[in-house]
């Protein structure tokens, strides 16, 4: 484990040298949330109104939580990096080191996103108070438990992105798969809670990754319920095993197919 | 004891082919076609512990593919490899603790970190205790003279400094075998010489087995006692440097400077490489004649200066490459 902590630390030290990039990321986060808040404010013509069980306060905070989870992840860049590593053969230089590539990629990415994750939470909370001047009722315990689900959500997202990136072993370019995946996450879990969709779609979404990486943690934050927390936690643990299993399988199969010509 | 044992090693790559033009591009999208390229065609060799071996060949000969199979990066299609008794295809992680690799064309260091932070990182990767890592860094820092720039981010180092750091990073876990794939590529002669000295020193002091590939013949000449030449995926030569130099191509180059009245009568076994006035550069094939016989074609009394040298190693190797095509 110590070696993976060092990988995280090394990447964190690298990302600290790029603070302006983090600052720019925060700026785009701010713009995005502000625009979406304006849209919701227009939709909620009456501030007391409930749409699909959500008040304007809950909807704003739902959006903030899902947006923090989505933007701090930096999934597009991460997926591109893995695809590039596989295609260029750079991945080979990780093969002769005494660590698991999947964990290497996981901790490296955690190191690169931890700073942005913390900054996004701070900015997100501040933005929430500025925009809506209130917050769904919270206790210290509920905040801690939501943070746990947020962390696990990011973990699953990273594993899923690694799995998409590792598809490059088998296909020409895996980036379009990430594009599709990210748009699904944005539409079905980030912009709109799953209650906004017809019953038959909702049934599918409840078993999809969207439930554990986006909707679940945000839903808990706006309407905490311990039973729901346990459901989400169990689903997240199952998803961690499944997504890690997929990554390990793809890596084991893919590395045997590796074609690296030349020096 | 054998450090490396390779038996009948084979590797074939599947390479996508495409007809020319836009039509060809669409065709390859719908019905991709592939051709097989045999990169390594059943080579066998052994390397003893503590040996410094040059593994050379022209571009595309299969050198890097062989190294990648020996270090567990690529899976062979046939044959067997044992590196320190470990099968790289089955126990890649276990092997990683015993070997070090430096690929001159690829960076393994984290460029935004300093060499010191990199060495600490590699120490942790190889599960070495913090205090021990500090000791090793201090030792290697002095040996490789890294003191001046050990706290400068790698991205700000010169190529020579970076390669020195790459080698140190690969030595931090004291590997028993070091694979060096073109470690001096792009370096100036002074830095090259420095790196060679360090490699030699390492081999002497730690008894590290060195497996070196390089296109720079001086690297091979100055470091290695044995050379393996590979071309088109086949082993072309496996011999000592001494045999390669003096027996494989038994030719000498003689530069002769004569007075203006001196005469050269010519000889079928003497090949004139260059002539300017009464100065000759000749090549003598010792399989056909002797130096003494060759010299008889010159007017001995008018010779002012004479210089006998071996055929440059570079020429020998080029000839071997060409013969094996």
Key features of this structure:
heterodimer, A: 263 residues, mainly alpha, 11 helices, globular, B: 325 residues, alpha/beta, Rossmann fold, Alpha-Beta Plaits, six-stranded mixed β-sheet, four-stranded antiparallel β-sheet, 34% helix
What does this structure look like?
The complex is a heterodimer of chains A (263) and B (325). Chain A is built from 11 helices and no strands. By secondary structure, chain A is mainly α. Chain A has one domain (2-257). The longest helix of chain A has 32 residues, at 101-132. Chain A is globular, with a radius of gyration of 19 Å. The mean pLDDT of chain A is 88. Chain B has 11 helices and 13 strands. With 325 residues, chain B is of the alpha/beta class. Chain B is globular and about 75 Å long. A 6-stranded mixed sheet of chain B has the order 5-6-7-3-8-9, with helices on both faces.
């Amino acid at each position: 484990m110590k070696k993976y902590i060092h990988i995280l630390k090394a990447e964190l030290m690298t990302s600290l040298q790029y603070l302006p990039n983090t600052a720019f990321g925060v700026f785009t986060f701010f713009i995005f949330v502000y625009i979406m808040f304006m849209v919701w404010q227009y939709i909620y013509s009456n501030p007391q109104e409930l749409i699909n069980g959500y008040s304007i306060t809950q909807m704003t905070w739902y959006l903030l939580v899902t947006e923090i989870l989505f933007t701090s992840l930096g999934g597009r860049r991460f997926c591109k990096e893995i695809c590039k590593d596989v295609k260029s053969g750079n991945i080979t230089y990780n093969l002769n080191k005494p660590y698991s590539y999947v964990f290497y990629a996981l901790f490296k990415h955690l190191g690169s996103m931890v700073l942005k994750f913390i900054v996004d939470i701070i900015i997100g909370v501040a933005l929430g108070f500025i925009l809506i001047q209130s917050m769904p009722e919270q206790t210290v315990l509920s905040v801690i438990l939501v943070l746990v689900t947020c962390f696990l959500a990011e973990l699953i997202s990273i594993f899923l992105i690694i799995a998409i990136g590792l598809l490059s072993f088998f296909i020409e370019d895996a980036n379009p798969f990430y594009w599709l995946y990210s748009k699904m996450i944005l539409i079905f879990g980030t912009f709109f809670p799953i209650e906004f969709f017809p019953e038959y779609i909702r049934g599918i979404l409840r078993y999809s990754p969207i439930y554990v990486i986006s909707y679940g943690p945000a839903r808990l934050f706006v309407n905490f319920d311990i039973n729901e927390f346990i459901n989400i936690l169990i689903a997240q643990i199952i998803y961690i095993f499944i997504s890690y299993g997929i990554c390990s399988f793809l890596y084991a199969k893919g590395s045997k197919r590796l074609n690296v010509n030349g020096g | 004891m054998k450090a490396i044992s390779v038996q009948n090693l084979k590797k074939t790559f599947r390479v996508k082919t495409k007809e020319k033009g836009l039509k060809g591009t669409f065709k390859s999208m719908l019905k991709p076609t592939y051709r097989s390229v045999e990169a390594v065609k059943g080579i066998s060799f052994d390397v003893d512990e503590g040996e410094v071996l040059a593994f050379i060949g022209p571009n595309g000969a299969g050198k890097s593919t062989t190294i990648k199979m020996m270090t567990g990066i690529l899976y062979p299609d046939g044959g067997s490899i044992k590196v320190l008794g470990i099968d790289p295809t089955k126990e890649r992680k276990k092997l990683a603790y015993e070997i070090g690799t430096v690929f001159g064309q690829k960076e393994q260091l984290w460029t935004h970190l300093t060499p010191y932070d990199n060495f600490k990182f590699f120490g942790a990767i190889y599960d070495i205790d913090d205090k021990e890592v500090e000791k090793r860094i201090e030792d290697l820092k002095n040996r490789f003279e890294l003191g001046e720039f050990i706290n400068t981010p790698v991205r700000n180092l010169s190529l020579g400094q970076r390669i020195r750091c790459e080698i140190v990073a690969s030595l931090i876990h004291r590997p028993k075998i070091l694979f060096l794939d073109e470690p001096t590529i792009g370096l100036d002669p002074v830095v090259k010489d420095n790196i060679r000295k360090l490699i030699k020193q390492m081999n002497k002091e730690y008894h590290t087995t060195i497996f070196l590939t390089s296109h720079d013949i001086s690297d091979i000449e100055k470091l290695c006692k044995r050379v393996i030449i590979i071309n088109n995926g086949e082993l072309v030569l496996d011999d000592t440097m001494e045999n390669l130099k003096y027996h494989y191509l038994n030719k000498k180059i003689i530069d002769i400077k004569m007075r203006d009245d001196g005469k050269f009568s010519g000889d079928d076994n003497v090949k004139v490489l260059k002539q300017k006035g009464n100065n000759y550069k000749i090549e003598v094939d010792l399989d056909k004649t002797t130096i003494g016989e060759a010299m008889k074609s010159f007017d001995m009394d008018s010779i002012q200066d004479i210089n006998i040298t071996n055929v440059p190693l570079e020429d020998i190797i080029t000839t071997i490459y060409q013969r094996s095509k």
